[in-house]
Amino acid sequence: SKPTFDPETGDHLRNEYTFQRRTSAGTETLSLQGNGNPLNSGTGLIRSAFRPSDDATILGFFIPANAMMSVELRRTSKFLKASNKASLAEKLEKWGETLRSAVWEH
After folding, report:
1. How far apart are CA 58 and CA 51, in angstroms?
2. Burial grade of 9 (CB within 10 A; 0-12, 13-18, 19 or more)
3. Phi and psi at residue 5, to the nearest 5°
4. Is the pLDDT of residue 69 over 80?
5. What does the record list as GO biological process (predicted)?
6. CA nearest 65: which of 30, 28, 36, 102?
């Protein structure tokens, strides 16, 4: 995921994905004009703006979803290897391992 602030200057960087609606419940929309709370760089994790319950996340790196994605990326890479798609399989395997390491780290 891309960070939402510049680590060198501290300036706010608008996220590519935003979601904002008029509501009286804070869990129904993303804070900070639809950007959500700030995200750090270099975590290796994938941002989740909403939880499976459809509530907005406060902490943007939802670990259970990242863990599931890691497993599925590595599983898909095995199918791709068997289908002679070695290059794509290698990319998915590497991404799955990177994500797995990030989950354990964070």
Report:
1. 10
2. exposed
3. -145, 150
4. yes
5. carbohydrate metabolic process
6. 102
